[in-house]
Specification:
about 50% helix; six-stranded parallel β-sheet; transferase; Rossmann fold; alpha/beta; binds pyridoxal-5'-phosphate; EC 2.4.1.1; single chain
């Protein structure tokens, strides 16, 4: 008789060896047996896939160990639920974190393949819109790096964020097809499939002890199937899992209909199910408000919750210890319906009473808020939820009754306060407030910068904060220094290693050792040389893609982010117009040569944002072609901003534009990427800029404009923008030029509505901040002329930005919120 070995004893495969020779032979092996191609006919894409498969094997070795480790230790698991993961490419990240870059490069060289060429073919996984999705991707990498057993859960969109093309300066959206050549990183897990229901009705039956039991009988069901992508941490200490759900029908084809000749009707169910996970909603910071979006949110929430409970039950006898073994972080309110879903599963499926289920739920969930804009707070019409999720609606009412009773009876809240706390917004058509649901159903609610967290307490959640004063806390965002320094800026990384050794690679806060080098002229020159190389690379990209020549010795001024009125690309463009005017009026002055770069996508339905893109292109055409400018100013809008483009632009920036209307940017993470790579920031006291100033020192950042408090006051007073504009000659001339059609001779009225908005209400404080901004830009010019001082500040930015590593952010989440 053989004894059944315990799981801890079952063998793991022998880890792979990674010499260039072995890697080369494995690449040939994959090419032959997995892709079915002879070396002599292999296309670059085949080499890419074969190379990824070889790298993937090295990841799998560590993955199995990590997964088995949690099982054996009984450690707490963290689940990060996010409707978006803006990942970008994975190959360089994986190679670098496995420390295999040189070995793979040599292996490919021996096969006559250039690593850079095939790396450039990998599509960006763009399953997100902007900062919120990129944060989720940075967090996944940092959770693996700081050794937290974590799972990311999201949706495997067939089409990620649209590809942006320019047609005569207008944004055109094209479908994005990242899966066209397959996805060698993922594993389809047919066995990890769950049913997710929609619609139908709730039946009440008598349960044990004559207590009523509720049975949800959905009218419609789809299957959620998991696709797993391993996420490697730095030095492959740990590998975690990103699990993305794909929808498929229960019946792929309705054979009765098909046989009766209804060939289209036979596929209706199938099409409907698959359309659920077909596309990412391209709106950023504004709720899509459409039924399909709510279906997506519930679909991935329900599948994730079922998966989490199944994994728990494999290991533990029941759910009473769920909060000790599971933390679920909600990335914004998109997965907030999970709170009602966990309640439903605990009560209806696993037989819990309401109160103990509520206790478990609240202790398990925590919620990250990403925006204060009232129009951006998610809410759904009560009739829609009643129809799509009737049982969840009942649970929401029950949660609400409990919370309101507590507020009224124990805390003596007023009717007005009660109205703000309620899960149901009763002003107008009745709606379920997802932010309030997420708040009430969580033990921790965090903001993403110090300023944002304070404003959260004072504005959107002031009454809920009064009811639960110990729940709101701050976790300032961060970025992973692997992608945003080591991988995107190998030149700077090499220089830093030479100067201060390798410690900063393991701990970005060790970059402070660089501080004294800011005063070292020899070091500054090397730092400037690296910057120049990166600027040449960007200049080449611009020439290849757009046929525009830019001078790498000019000041590279960069604003890249989603196009949004609150981010104020318009302020930047108006300043460019004013500067253009000045350069032409004062040819005798020594203007600092400058290239203003823009990139970013606008939500397809956001009219003003699209008009701002067209304006940037119109202004660029006029300025770039005016000989009177003598090349001193260029404006370049690079199409199709994504993670890979950011990886080229960030290291090439001298000046980072972080100029949102104060109080409106929750944190920003683009600001951190630039500072880490030695750009100076011109910015408002908004989001994490405030903390960046504290870390890099006020003398090393250029701050301008109204503060958040001043913006609030200005809005309350209803100041007259017209007076402000008329008080500024530069501004009024620039606005008149744009409004009168100087940049749009083909359609002189194109920008009149945009400019009227500034004259009439100036909600985003473009006029109010213009003079302060223009003055700050001339300070930048003066600084640039003094190159030693400029580079002293640039070096100090790199030296002091280590705190903004997402490793630090994740450690704070782990310590204060997850207790993992
Ligand atoms: C970092 C990043 C963002 C966020 O930029 P912000 O300036 O913080 O808005 C958006 N998109 C991409 C592709 C990014 O890499």
């Amino acid at each position: 008789m053989t004894k059944k070995p315990s799981t801890a004893d079952l063998p793991l495969p022998t880890p792979r060896v990674s010499t260039p020779e072995i890697l080369a032979s494995e690449i040939i092996e994959r090419l032959t047996y997995r892709i079915g191609k002879d070396v002599i006919v292999a296309k670059p894409h085949d080499w890419l896939t074969a190379t990824i498969l070889v790298i993937r094997d090295r990841i799998i070795d560590r993955w199995m160990e990590s997964t088995r480790g949690v099982y054996n230790s009984g450690a707490k698991r963290v689940y990060y639920l996010s409707l978006e993961f803006l990942i970008g490419r994975l190959m360089r990240d994986a190679m670098s974190n496995l420390q295999l870059v040189d070995a793979i490069r040599q292996a490919l060289e021996s096969l006559g393949v250039d690593l850079n060429v095939i790396a450039g073919l990998e599509p960006d996984a763009a399953l997100g819109n902007g900062g919120l999705g990129r944060l989720a991707a940075c967090f996944m990498e940092s959770m693996a790096t700081v050794d937290i057993p974590a799972y990311g859960y999201g949706i495997r969109y067939v089409h990620g964020l649209f590809r942006q093309q320019m047609a005569d300066g207008w944004q055109v959206e094209l479908p994005e097809t990242w899966l066209a050549h397959g996805n060698p990183w993922e594993f389809e897990r047919r066995e990890a499939s769950y049913e997710v229901g929609f619609g139908g009705a709730v039946e009440t039956v008598n349960g044990p002890d004559d207590k009523p039991r509720y049975l949800w009988k959905p009218a419609e069901r789809v299957i959620a199937t998991a696709y797993d992508t391993p996420v490697v941490g730095w030095k492959a200490k740990r590998v975690n899992t990103l699990r993305l759900w794909s929808a498929r029908p229960i019946d792929p084809i309705l054979l009765d209909a098909f046989n009766a000749g209804d060939h289209i009707g036979a596929l209706r169910e199938s099409n409907k199910a698959e359309s659920l996970t077909r596309v990412l909603y391209p709106a950023d910071a504004t709720p899509a408000g459409q039924e399909l979006r709510l279906r997506q949110e519930f679909f991935f929430s329900s599948a994730s919750l079922q998966d989490i409970l199944r994994r728990h039950m494999q290991q533990y006898p029941d759910f009473t210890n769920l909060p000790d073994k599971v933390s679920i972080q909600l990335n914004d309110t998109h997965p907030a319906i999970s709170i009602a879903e966990l309640m439903r599963l605990l009560i209806d499926v696993h037989g819990f009473d309401f109160d103990p289920a509520w206790e478990i739920t609240r202790k398990t969930f925590s919620y990250t808020n990403h925006t204060l804009l009232p129009e951006a707070l998610e809410s759904w019409p009560v009739p829609l939820i009643e129809r799509m999720l009737p049982r969840h609606m009942q649970i929401v009412y029950a949660i609400n009754a409990k919370a309101l009773l507590e507020a009224r009876k124990e805390k003596y809240f007023s009717d007005n306060e009660i109205r703000h706390i309620s899960l149901i917004d009763e002003s107008g058509d009745r709606r379920v407030r997802m932010g309030n649901l997420a708040f009430i159903g969580s033990h921790s609610i965090n903001g993403v910068s110090a300023l944002h967290t304070e404003l959260m307490k004072e504005t959107v959640f002031s009454d809920l904060h009064k009811l639960y004063p110990d729940r709101i806390n701050n976790k300032t965002n961060g970025i992973t220094p692997r992608r945003w320094l080591q991988q995107c800026n190998p030149g700077l990384t090499g220089l830093l290693r030479e100067a201060i050794g390798d410690e900063f690679l393991d701990d970005a806060e060790k970059l402070t050792a660089l501080d004294p080098f800011a005063e070292d002229a020899g070091f500054r020159e090397k730092f400037a040389a690296v910057k120049r190389t990166n600027k040449v690379a960007l200049a080449n990209l611009v020439y290849e893609r757009m046929g525009i020549r830019v001078d790498p010795s000019a000041l590279f001024d960069i604003q890249i982010k989603r196009i949004h009125e609150y981010k104020r690309q318009l302020l930047n463009i108006i300043e460019a117009v004013a500067l253009y005017d000045q350069i032409r009026s004062h040819p005798e002055l020594d203007w600092v040569p400058r290239v203003k770069f823009f990139a970013g996508k606008a939500a397809p339905s956001y009219h003003n944002a699209k008009l701002i893109i067209k304006l940037a292109n119109d202004v660029a055409r006029v300025i770039n072609n005016d000989p009177a400018v003598r090349g001193l100013l260029k404006v370049v809008f690079i199409p199709n901003y994504n993670v890979s483009l950011a990886e080229v632009m960030v290291p090439a920036a001298d000046l980072s534009e972080q100029i949102s209307t104060a109080g409106m940017e929750a944190s920003g993470t683009g600001n951190m990427k630039f500072g880490l790579n030695g750009a100076l920031t011109i910015g408002t006291l908004d989001g994490a800029n405030v903390e960046m100033r504290e870390h890099v020192g006020a003398e090393n950042i250029i701050i301008f404009g109204l503060t958040a408090d001043e913006v609030t006051r200005a809005r309350a007073e209803g100041r007259n923008p017209r007076a402000t504009i008329e008080g500024s000659r530069e501004l009024s001339q620039a606005l008149s030029a744009i409004a009168s059609g100087v940049f749009s001779p083909d359609d002189r009225g194109r920008y009149s509505s945009l400019i009227d908005g500034i004259y009439n209400h100036d909600w985003f404080m473009v006029a109010a901040d213009f003079d302060s901004y223009a003055r700050a830009q001339r300070e930048v010019d003066a600084l640039w002329i003094d190159q030693p001082t400029w580079y002293t500040k640039a070096v100090l930015n790199t030296a002091r930005m280590g705190w903004f590593s997402s490793d630090r952010t994740i450690r704070q989440y782990a310590q204060d919120i997850w207790r993992a």
